[in-house]
Design a protein that fits this description.
Blueprint: H1 2-23, E1 29-30, E2 35-36, H2 40-45, H3 47-57, H4 62-76, E3 85-88, E4 91-94, H5 101-118, E5 123-129, H6 146-156, H7 186-196, E6 206-213, E7 228-234, H8 236-240, E8 242-245, E9 249-252, E10 275-279, E11 288-293, H9 297-300, E12 310-314, H10 321-324, E13 334-340, H11 341-344
Parallel strand pairs: 5-13, 11-12, 11-13
Antiparallel strand pairs: 1-2, 3-4, 6-7, 8-9, 8-10, 10-12
């Protein structure tokens, strides 16, 4: 009898929640999971195939259930690396471990290949941005041997290295996201300036703040973690510049609509894009910079605009290097390879095929 009652309660609860999900107004985006959710429109397309996804995405109190499960796993079962993330001093830190020698060697080989085969007429440098796990010192945390990794890169990459790591602390990163806060890049740009031969200036900026930034790591931990403040800096040079994307044409440097999307970080240069050309018509010099980059450069690049006539961003995760020369002429520009250790340890993502 007891088992029957439990079964009836379970079936009733499941049916009630499923029915509620069909009646309650759909949520377009899960802030917690940073993604778009299935809607009733998908049921019109193919009811049978899409019903399961729809009921799962629109399940009432979905975020609460996910957060409760994460809390139980982390604090009751004691899995401090639940969902491959750590929490330290309010920072969500993705576990980047173990070190993948094959990928690290692949990164070195790909960078050297691009330099040797495409950049003979350029001054070339590289810098590495550490992921947040770099700042974990306690033995209970698993992390890369960063000393070994950085020494290996400097020894085997045949390009001058600009060390920016010693400028950074954990406080320079968002708490809920893997990226660095934009205003923390000022000291990085000042460090780059003598190498790239532009005169760093203490320029005036208008600071704007978005108060509810839930970053890429937020969905991996209990939802009581507070959102970040996302700052973005503007001045006339940035406001007047335009970014021409290979995929979807001309955009503003800051894509304000992205603040209401699944990933507000995409306010910076509209998110992922294979090639972006940025032109600054308000400057007299003819300096050009090319950056081979990952997503970390998206928020740094706007702060470089006041110093350059043209900046070209190339993301080899989205375009094969064999095709880049169809769109980019490598002649006399300064070139910076700027990658995070997340990409170094997962270089298979870079579409470069050394021969």
């Amino acid at each position: 009898m007891k088992e029957k009652i439990i079964s009836i309660i379970f079936i009733f609860t499941l049916f009630s929640f499923s029915l509620a999900s069909l009646i309650i107004k759909d949520k377009d985006i899960s802030t917690y999971e940073r993604r778009k959710l299935s809607s009733k429109e998908t049921l019109k397309e193919d009811f049978i195939s899409n019903l399961d996804d729809y009921l799962t995405d629109q399940f009432p109190l979905r975020d609460l259930f996910i957060s409760t499960n994460s809390t139980f796993d982390r604090y009751i079962l004691g899995n401090n690396d639940s969902n491959d993330t750590y929490i330290k001093d309010g920072f969500i830190i993705d576990k980047n471990y173990p070190l993948d020698e094959k990928n690290v060697n692949g990164f070195i080989e790909k960078i050297n290949y691009v330099k040797e085969n495409y950049l003979n007429d350029n001054r070339v440098f590289y810098s590495i941005i550490p992921d947040k796990a770099y700042f974990l010192n306690e033995k209970k945390y698993l992390k890369l041997d960063y000393t070994y990794l950085l020494n290996k890169l400097q020894k085997e990459i045949n390009i001058p290295y600009i060390d920016i790591i010693n400028l950074l602390t954990l406080d320079d990163y968002y708490k809920t996201d893997i990226h660095i806060k934009q205003d923390s890049y000022f000291k990085v740009i000042e460090k780059l300036s003598p190498y790239l031969e532009f005169a760093y200036q203490d320029l005036s900026y208008e600071e704007k703040i978005y108060n509810n930034f839930y970053g890429a790591s937020y969905s991996k931990v209990p939802s009581f973690i507070k959102p970040d403040k996302l700052k973005y800096m503007s001045n006339d040079a940035i406001n007047n510049a335009k970014a021409k994307h290979l995929e979807y044409g001309e955009k503003n440097i800051y894509d304000i609509e992205m603040l209401n999307s699944a990933d507000a970080y995409n306010i910076f240069l509209s998110g992922p894009s294979s090639i972006i050309e940025i032109e600054n018509s308000s400057i007299d010099n003819n300096k050009e910079l090319i950056i081979f980059r990952d997503s970390f450069a998206s928020s740094m690049t706007p702060l470089l605009i006041p110093y350059y006539k043209k900046i070209t961003l190339i993301d080899l995760r989205y375009i094969n290097m064999n095709y880049v020369t169809n769109y980019v002429d490598f002649t006399n520009q300064d070139v910076l390879f700027l990658y995070s250790t997340l990409i170094v340890n997962d270089s298979i993502l870079l579409k470069v095929n050394p021969k």
